[in-house]
Design brief:
Number of domains: 1
Radius of gyration: 20 Å
Order of helices and strands: HEEHEEEEEHH
CATH topology: Rossmann fold
Largest sheet: 7 strands, mixed
Helix content: 25-40%
CATH architecture: 3-Layer(aba) Sandwich
Distance between the termini: 46 Å
Mean pLDDT: 76
CATH class: Alpha Beta
Structural class: alpha/beta
Low-confidence stretches: 2-29, 171-184
Number of strands: 7
């Protein structure tokens, strides 16, 4: 019976304390200014040859920040503690199989985004160190499973948003499914 109590106590303690992850690790770039409390995220700049991804990617990042942090999202740069600058630098689309009508039935899509987080509280913009300054992901799609280029791109937007927010935490070990290059 005592072994069960000790085991239960250990499980509860680990559950309460977690695995060392906490939102307290959210970067405070200037110890005098305290932690960053708000963020402005302009629409992603697109330097790729493909258009239409700017707003869905920006929306996915905003939703992920709202869901996983205590940062207040500002509508304008004025009054924001920080700015998250994102740039879509490449969209790769590969066709694996086309049908007899030249319609893509299997392929993949990949995004590469640069990330820069700026502290706006001082007299000058200063860059807040990130775990990574580059986010990328690739997804495969197959038409016979109801998947399309657009559905793969939407899934990538969500995964990239997760990677960007994870990268905003200093010193955190990223889970393999977030940190690694993966094909799904």
């Amino acid at each position: 019976m005592n072994v069960v109590r000790v085991g239960l106590w250990i499980v509860v303690t680990l559950a309460v304390t977690g695995c060392g992850y906490s939102f307290d690790s959210l970067l405070a770039s200037d110890p005098d200014a305290g932690p960053v409390r708000s963020i402005w995220i302009p629409v992603i700049r697109n330097e790729s040859h493909r258009r239409q991804f700017e707003e869905p990617l920006t929306d996915a990042v905003i939703k992920e920040i709202q869901a996983t942090t205590d940062l207040e999202i500002k509508r304008t740069r004025t009054g924001a503690d920080s700015e998250l600058r994102l740039e879509l630098i490449d969209v790769e689309e590969h066709t694996s199989i086309e049908n007899r009508f030249d319609v893509q039935v299997q392929g993949s899509v990949a995004f590469v985004i640069t990330v820069q987080w700026l502290d706006l509280r001082g007299n000058e913009e200063t860059e807040i160190p990130l775990l990574r300054n580059l986010a990328r992901d690739r997804r495969r799609f197959t038409a016979t499973r109801g998947e399309t280029f657009s559905s793969a791109a939407a899934e990538i937007a969500e995964k990239i948003a997760e990677k960007i927010v994870e990268g905003m935490y200093r010193g955190m070990e990223l889970p393999p499914e977030v940190s690694g290059e993966q094909d799904a």
